[in-house]
Amino acid sequence: MPKEIIIGSRDSELAMWQSSWVAEALRQIQPEQNIRIRGMKTKGDHILEVALAKIGDKGLFTKELETALLNGTIDLAVHSMKDLPTGLPDGLVIGAVCRREQPGDVLISRTGVDLDHLRPGALVGTSSLRRRAQLLHYRPDLQMVDIRGNLNTRLRKLKELELDAIVLAYAGIKRLDCTDLITQHIPSEICLPAVGQGSLGIELRAGNDSIGSLVARLDHRPSRIAIEAERALMKRLEGGCQAPVGALAQVENDTLRLTGLVAELDGAKILRRNVTGPAADAAGLGNRLAEILLAAGAADIMRRARREYGVND
Residue 53: pLDDT above 60? Predict the structure, then answer.
């Protein structure tokens, strides 16, 4: 074991909280270990005035961290699993998938009303094509506004742009202790979460057995299985993390139920299907659901999304 373990992290408030949580969990296992966090900016952190889907999303929030891992500048990288591409660079592995926080989305509205009671034509802020499509499917009258930035930035834009509401992931709100701002937990029947949403992944160099065995202590098997199924679905659909794809895997004992969807950007059409099977076949179930969606026309929807909004493969 090295004298010091360096954890790489995006330097946003939420990312640093997540990396600090991982550092403290590792210290609880091995109190004598010196651990330091190195904050870094990624491409996605630098470009804030352009919709994510228009700037390409492969490694948008991870590439710089992975480069630092490969050149030995850092020993671990902590990612939100929803940001991590389904294909990892050669030489890197996911050493642990931490226990997943509740993966759904929440609504924060200026007047304290829920989704059903927002005024006709309400302005709703989100940077996610997945959220946009599903919310428009539920409420076609809504006017969706692209907003990006950290939690404080989005809350400021809620007021500055005179939006009626914004939609965010519950996990980030919970981790930053801002749950008092939540107006509504949006049901997954209305808005299925992003692949991997709510879970943290710890990436490290393959073959780093001493650090790998320590990190493995933070792995949460049900969360890893669920995320494996969702990521297999996404990989087979050839969608990036900004594509209009939602998924939610739930593990109960040895059984996994996976629900997935692909949506037209305007919400006019949504393909939503589910499969159930043995948890030991998580990747197989993800692939099977992808094939079901593709047979129903998902490939055409994905092509239109890439053409209409610049979503990259």
Answer: no
